[in-house]
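Reader question, answered in our methods column.
A reader sent in the components of a multi-part assembly and asked whether the whole thing could be modeled at once rather than chain by chain. We filled in our standard form and ran it. Here is what they sent:
COMPLEX SIZE: four components
ENTRIES:
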Amino acid sequence: MANRGQSRKTLLRALREVFEAKGFDGTTLTQLAESTGLGKASLYHHFPGGKGEMAAVLLRGSVAELEQLAFARLAGRLPPRQRLENFIDGFSDYVSGGEGNCLVAVLSDGSSGSEHRELIAQQFHEWIRRLAATFEDAGAKPKRAERLANDLLAGLYGHLLTARLVGEPGQFKKHLKNMKKRLPG
Amino acid sequence: MANRGQSRKTLLRALREVFEAKGFDGTTLTQLAESTGLGKASLYHHFPGGKGEMAAVLLRGSVAELEQLAFARLAGRLPPRQRLENFIDGFSDYVSGGEGNCLVAVLSDGSSGSEHRELIAQQFHEWIRRLAATFEDAGAKPKRAERLANDLLAGLYGHLLTARLVGEPGQFKKHLKNMKKRLPG
DNA sequence: GTCTATACACCGATAGAC
DNA sequence: GTCTATCGGTGTATAGAC
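And here is the structure of the entire assembly that came back:
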């Protein structure tokens, strides 16, 4: 359907769109072939491990992208409150303002998940730790900071889901705006 | 594997466990047969429409159960704050304290979702409306009540997901406790 | 690196005996 | 109502030409 044999980056983006929309079990090689413009056999040239390897590569790429777009912005010398706002904006970009989804969450369940579950758990623990540290910078005591970190992350993923459930993914951005308003610091 | 030919309720519960854990696309008739203790052909006696009909019946059952266990408790003459706490407890029961999942959310994506998306959207709109009404009973102005309703629902689904992502589904209950503490009213 | 053709397992679903 | 047996289709994956 698109993206006639181009760079690997373009290839990965086409594959990701399918996995993100259909999940691991719902994605077929035929769909991946159509999305990339390649034949099924050609996909095995790029990913000898087949569907599983594609998902694994995409998962690592998504973790890196979420790190870069969102969590990396928790660092720096800006006021904590602004770092948290930048983080939220980065997360919004990562999920295309609510129109897309988080591949890390998508691939965590289904037939694929079990292989990656430990990696994902470790990564989220680290991310929550860094979120909590930022809330501490903003003046919260450790226990409260940890709660705020968990609530913020749950709010992001929750609004991403519920906005889709009610059929209005665009509402995600509106809810993020409200979340930013109520940040401490 | 279990539940040798018993009541329809038992049958539905076995089917639900599989769909809840594996999603629609990840669930196979072989798994459903094993879970119920029936042969594949026997499942078609109970559900002539096959896998799709099973999912549709289970979806309606889950909507009814979520209504009964959680949202119904928003009504009554108790103080709004206590109604909201009861609602949260009911939601926790519905998802087995974080160990289970919400089948309505699970079936909303994947190859099954498109058929039920409109029903689900309508149902969630009504539920959010009733949540918002309860927050208004607790003294919140309409716009704030609507925001609190959305935030509460997103918090529930978000914590349900993130607790699983970090590999500690039991943490869900802890987060709910904190959410209850911060309710208005 | 891409293709066509194909292997082979498993999918959802059905036929028909009991 | 349950079973065994089987169907047609599709899934993932491979062989081998170009």
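What stands out: Residues 8-57 of chain A form a domain with the Arc Repressor Mutant, subunit A fold (CATH 1.10.10.60). Chain A has two domains: 8-57, 58-181.
Send us your own complexes using the same form.
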